[in-house]
Amino acid sequence: MAVDAAGPTLIYDGECGVCRQAVELLRRWDREHVLRFVPFQDQVAVAQFDIAPPGAGSRNAFDCPGGRVYAGADAVPQLLRLFPGKRWLAPFFGVPGVLPLARRAYAWIAVRRHCLVRVFQVARFAGRRNNHCDHSSTEC
Fold this sequence. Notes:
By secondary structure, the protein is an alpha+beta fold. The chain has helices at residues 17-29, 43-47, 75-80, 98-126; strands at 9-12, 36-39, 61-63, 69-71. A four-stranded mixed sheet has the order 2-1-3-4.
């Protein structure tokens, strides 16, 4: 099934391992192929949406039909609503305090995304964590 260019689109950092892993998860959930994925490094494709690129690649943007754009953690409940088996999770973001907490968690992960992907890879492939992050900076 072809995806409508005007349909829901996730614009993400194609150079970020955490972002690519999240996209792969969303692709598995998207059995009906309703979501379009565009790395923000694809400047020609991103230009169609008339939105500013995410600040230093730290936030993904979710463009909904009708021109509404959600960024970062605010996009999560909107994305969940697209997938029949995950829709039930979206209302939890309406519980007082959940969305602000999700925004803080998203920001924490976004700052450390390059380091975290290495930790996940080491843990998955070697069964141990021997790479350490200096959480006071974005460098590992």
